[in-house]
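Sequence in, structure out. Go.
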Amino acid sequence: MQDDPEIDWHREQIAKNRELIAELQSGNTAGADVFPETQAEIDRLTAQIEQSELIVAAYEKEHPQD
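Output:
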């Protein structure tokens, strides 16, 4: 069974956004507070990941693998 292209896109976004968050967090290795702009971007990416995960989970629930 082939997945829906939209679901594939969401899976790719989850992976991409997780990598971006890791890069943003690793850039703050000096131990100082995170810039508000950086934290806002991390929060935005986290929200996008959560939304995509919900969409993928709903799809997988409706289309269980054999």
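Check: The longest helix spans residues 36-62. Residues 7 and 37 are 30 Å apart (CA to CA).
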